[in-house]
Each structure stands twice: as C-alpha cells, then as structure tokens.
Amino acid sequence: MAGEIVLVILIVIGLVGRSHIIATAACLLLAVKLIHLERYLPTIERRGLELGLLFLTLSVLVPFAAGKIQTKDVTALITSWPGWLALLGGAAATYINGKGLDLLRFDPQIIVGLVIGSILGIVFMRGVPVGPLMAAGITAILYKIFKMFSG
C-alpha cells in the first residue's frame, strides 16, 4: 500500500510541478500495480531505461530520416565554432550521462533524490526535466568534487 501512496503523491507533484512525464510514469506504474501486473515491474526496471533511450534517440534522429538535415548542414557544423562547441557539448553530455548510469547501477536508491530534485527544479527554477541520467551524471560529478574537498 505504501508504494501506491508514493505513486499518487508523485502524480500530484508531477501535475502541480507541470512535469507530465513524471505524472504519466507514476500513473502507468500505479495502473500496473492496481491491475496486479507486478510481475512485470522487474522487466520494466531492467529494460525501461533502454527503451526510453531508444525512443529518445529515435526522436533525435528523425530529422536525418526525414531529410531535414543535409550533407551541407553537417559540413557547416564541422567548419564553424558553434558547431565545434556543439560537438564538444554532445561528447561531454554523453560522458556525464555514462557516469550517471554508473551511479544509478551502483546506488539505485539515489533515484529518489534525483526525482525530488528534478521536481524542485521544475517548480522553483522553471527547469525542464531531461531525465535521470543527466541528473545522476551531475550528481556523480558533484559527489567526486565533494569527496575531493572533504577528504
């Protein structure tokens, strides 16, 4: 029963915080629990991140498939400083996301703090939740900095 209460609280917080992704995810998990499909929760936990990354990657690659990005666009990218900064930013983000994935594998309970922190960022800073990997990656970097200064 405690799990259902937490999911309902997350639905309310997601709605109040205008985070439809969190509200929808909590709704879907609540539905899974209420119709007694809990046996699928381990599969959702194990494969959900991969499935989410698949759909995210699909959405990012659609402009290539739709022909909206041409060879000249790629050439312009690698011959301009904003393009090089974009390449550097993309590489840094994927590195940070990898560190986040390592942290989530090592300490999966940290997701609670990441979700609450994301909600606080949405509500008080008008942020946009980009997902637990980036949040975990930033957390991993902050953790290393904290360990470095605290001994």
Describe this structure as you would to a colleague.
It contains 7 helices and no strands. The protein is mostly helical and 151 residues long. The protein has a domain at 70-151. The longest helix is centred in the middle third of the chain and has 26 residues, at 81-106. The mean pLDDT is 87.
Short description:
With 151 residues, the protein is mainly α.
Cα-to-Cα separation, first versus last residue: 41 Å
Shape: globular
State the helical fraction.
Answer: over 70%
Counting helices, strands and paired strands, the structural category is: mainly alpha
Note the total helix count.
7
Report the sheet with the most strands, covering strand number, pairing sense and barrel closure.
none
| Number of E-type strands | 0
Q: State which percent range the strand residues make up.
A: under 5%
Q: What is the string of helix and strand elements? A: HHHHHHH
Output the radius of gyration.
19 Å
Mean pLDDT across all residues, rounded?
87
